[in-house]
Specification:
With 266 residues, the chain is an alpha/beta fold. The protein is 46% helix and 16% strand.
Length: 266
């Protein structure tokens, strides 16, 4: 059987493709394991400068397996205590692995991003949507709550009022409204989606890699820290990056009116 998550590298950009189109890329145990393993691989490779996450076939990700839910198997089997542990050792590994990646991440949402699939997109730093993409925080429609971090992620992206509307109604948000609501930074024709994602990734990857990673960390920490703490962390990071070879290269390139060539050397 083909890999549940395809790992493709083009120079310093990695594309992760959920590869179970027959289930609309539902987050079964094998897909969860494949995605977490890919994130672990990237986390230890500082030559990766940007990551694209997308889905094979017509859907980005349908979320948890409703079939497993109906049959009380996989993630949804066993006692309440068993299920709690399966969440913690299963699907909840994804937000910890993907959201905490230091390399910038781009969700290329090529179709339905439903339930945990919507949350998967929210775990990425940047989201671009195909014009036929649909987002839905639809757990309530199945009589369940967001068990994968959606209650933490969604309000930070769209605000509490819109997050509540999406979560309490299970409504679907099309690509145009997704841009309006900040679920996506842009919507593009479906045929151009991956090209657009690769263009953004390439623009990111031209910059000093360690600076990118520290900038992402500052943005992440700034969401949960006060200003004084963020300023202290910024001062510490600044003292590091200004002693890196890439800083000297960036300044030289600016004075010489040329593009910088950054190696990530420390």
């Amino acid at each position: 059987m083909s890999d549940p998550v395809i790992f493709h590298r083009d120079e310093n950009v990695v594309t992760l493709t959920l590869n179970r189109p027959e289930t609309r890329n539902a987050l079964t145990a094998e897909v969860v394991d494949g995605l977490v393993a890919a994130c672990d691989r990237i986390a230890f490779d500082h030559t990766v400068r940007a990551v694209i996450v997308t889905g094979a076939g017509p859907a980005f990700c349908a979320g948890g397996s409703v079939k497993d839910m109906r049959e009380k198997s996989g993630l949804f089997g066993g006692s309440p205590a068993d299920m709690r542990n399966r969440y913690r050792t299963g699907i909840q590994r994804i937000p910890l692995a993907l959201y905490e990646l230091e390399a910038p991440t781009i969700a290329a949402v090529n179709g339905g991003a439903i339930g945990a699939g919507c949350d998967l997109a929210l775990m990425c730093d940047i989201r671009i949507a195909a014009d036929n993409a649909v987002f839905a925080e639809s757990f309530v429609k199945l009589g369940i709550i967001p068990g994968d971090g959606g209650a933490w992620l969604l309000p930070r992206v769209v605000g509490m009022s819109r997050a509540s509307e999406m979560s309490f109604t299970g409504m679907q948000v099309d690509a145009a409204k997704a841009v309006e609501w900040n679920l996506a930074s842009r919507a593009v024709p479906a045929a151009a989606l991956l090209d657009e994602a690769r263009k953004i990734a390439a623009n990111i990857a031209t910059n000093p890699p360690e600076v990118l990673r520290m900038t992402k960390r500052l943005l992440r920490e700034g969401q949960r820290s006060d200003l004084r703490t963020t300023l202290e962390l910024s001062a510490a990071f600044q003292s590091i990056v200004q002693h890196l070879p890439d800083h000297r290269e960036a300044v030289s390139a600016m004075f010489e009116k040329r593009s910088g060539v950054f190696t990530g050397a420390r």
